[in-house]
Amino acid sequence: MNFYPKNLRGIVTAFLFSICICQQATAKENFNDEYFLRNLKQNNFSIDPSAVAVVLYEKSTVDISPDNGWVVSQKVHRIIKVIRKEGLDQADVLVATFHVNGSFAEIKKIAGTTYNLENGQMQQQQLNTDLVTAEKDYMFLTRKFSMPSVKEGSIIDYTYTIRHDFGLMYTDWTFQDGIPCLYSELETTIPVIFDTRSMTQGNLQFVELPNGPRKIADSLLPESFRYSEIVNGNEFKNSHWVRRNIPALEEEPFVASVNNYKEKIKLQITGTTKNSFSVNFLNTWPKLNKALYESFSFYRPLVLRHEDIGRVAKELTASLNDETEKAKAIYNYVRKNISAKENSGIWSTRDLNDVFVKHTGTPAEINLVMIAMMKAAGLNCDPVILSTRENGKIYDAFPALTGFNHTIGMLVVGSETYYLDASEKYNPFGTLPEQCYNGYARLVNQNGGSVNLLPEMNKNKGMVVVTTENADPQHYTLNFKQYFTKAEAAGLRAEWSADTTEIRKHLIKSLKVLSLNAALKTYEIQNLDNPESALTLNYTVSLSWPSGKSVYFTPVFMNRYSSNPFKANERIYPVEMDGVTDYSYSLQLKIPDGFTLEEMPKSSITTIDEKDEYKFMTQYDKETNTLRLNARLQMLRTDFQTEEYPVVRAFFDKILAANQQKIILK
After folding, report:
1. Are 371 and 331 in contact (CB under 8 A)?
2. What is the pLDDT of residue 435?
3. Does the pLDDT value for residue 9 go beyond 60?
4. Quick one: DSSP state of residue 549?
5. What is the pTM of this model?
6. The CATH number of the domain covering residues in 20-272
7. Which residue ranges does the record assign to the Transglutaminase-like domain (predicted)?
């Protein structure tokens, strides 16, 4: 699934609530010609000598002031040194602010300069603001621009200001991203009548400086510190959060989203100490639920009468008595007949009947149509909003809408609850795409509530069964029956339905890894268009056995892991699997006539704990001259802490060692 927005390296994104990236040099720096000339001459920084670019300075200044009501203003100033060509993408800037119908937001005062060193002289080129492009969709107002004349060694310096209305006052400041940062600061000026709360992410621990950094030498300042003071006649509180010498954020496999580990601080207005002053803050889950429940772009259309939606829903369910069967009929109709286009987050941007009639919509619109049809059929189905795994986690303690980027359905039939996503063409009823299992989510209906979509709910079960059809060495034939996991099947169904010749290519490629001379004879695919049943590939393979000499080969013909997926010696983040694994391999290999078994793999059981194990069991039946091998990988845990990483890595080493054992035939 391609859920917008997605954080991209080298693209700066600032949401309405100030989702930004932070960088600087020193709190007492003067940004004059001497400063830029000095940094133009420096092409290596001790924080990371291999860095492709370094943020020299960044500051976000946020203040709240009365302007026909309270208005939030955020000014961002950023200076970046481009060191290598791989860092040139830092010149492409995207600024976005959350903006839905009925709210005020604007992006203005965009300015920038590129500095280059030419023949020892500093050259400057201003950003042509006529080339700034603007876009607006239902959720975001954006501005895009590219800094001019950027090359290796350039310094780019730009500023912009975001202004928005006050009801959703929420500032999210990210101190860490894909390039190192020398200095980053968030400054806020908020009226003292407002109460606030904050939450930090990553390893942030700010040292409180009661008197600020003014009288402290830079070399003595902590790497992270904060300070505050009351200003403007005791009416405003001015606060600073400063982080220095921040390493680049590193990527690792088996992490739901590195966004969850970025150093970040979130600030939110929770209320006012002045009883006579009233602002409708959307700062609790019940308030957010009420706003969505009453929104004509979300819940209200679900309970309105839609002629076509209602008519088809009743036609599909008229002959059915069982509620689950009714839901399946509606779900499969929507899944097959409405195609997904670009994402709009959680909202509907069009009339649902229009989506239904034209057979195309965003993922959220498709699922809202499905929910509307189920309600029209008398079923208990409501929307659930969530954040996909790659988008980052939602935190119960910090109510805000901006983190959500997808809408699904929750159906209740008696004591059973089903989570539904009809926007994925090959997603089966009652399960979700693996990206949706990301923890905390919100049910939206009259009362609202929380939902926990845990990765443990995502079951990845697959199996391979190999049997001998013909043991004559001249016509030796094996039969393979492969049952794909749900995640594997989703991608393969889309690929193979579009072009069935890809099935044969897939098989030919898989046979190349066999340690014997193999040729594909026949194959058939089952349940290609039916995601309710396991996608199954049934095929026969002929093997050529050499005569007059010993044969060495590995009997695990379909090895799920060709190498250890955990290659690094050390781990930064916890290991986060996208679901539980239950994968089996069964082999009944009749020894070819004229051959004898000289050596066979040894049985073994490898475990991490009582929930995670790999059984590799072999048995030889002399009477039938048959080798039996049964292997099963079960991983019922989805999260492993960093300190458990050596055990997880060793576990996969042992799996590979077991699977790579050889059979020797004479």
Report:
1. no
2. 95
3. no
4. S
5. 0.89
6. 2.60.40.3140
7. 312-390
Helix (H, G, I), strand (E, B) or coil at 383: strand
Cα gap 148→113, rounded to integer Å: 8
The torsion defined by the Cα of 646, 648, 653 and 655, in degrees rounded to 10, comes to 160
The token pair at 622 is 């002399």
- What's the whole-number average pLDDT of the chain? 89
For 646-665, what is the mean pLDDT? Answer: 94
* pLDDT-derived band at 520, boundaries 50, 70, 90: very high
Report the side by side order of strands in the sheet with 140-146: 92-98, 140-146, 133-136
Do residues 474 and 537 make contact, with C-beta atoms less than 8 angstroms apart? no
- Confidence at 101, pLDDT banded by 50, 70, 90: low
Where, residue-wise, is CATH 2.60.40.3140 in the chain?
A: 20-272
Under 8 Å between Cβ of 554 and 662:
yes
Architecture of domain 459-665: Sandwich (2.60)
All residues at 6 or more sequence positions from 348 whose CB lies less than 8 Å from its CB, including other chains? 297, 298, 301, 355, 361, 362, 364, 365, 368
Position 1 pLDDT exceeds 70: no
Measure CA 266 to chain center. Answer: 20
**Contact 493/426 with Cβ under 8 angstroms?**
yes
CATH T-level fold of 286-453: C8orf32 fold (3.10.620)
- Which single residue is written with the structure tokens 């050259």? 123
Pairing of strands 639-640, 575-576: antiparallel
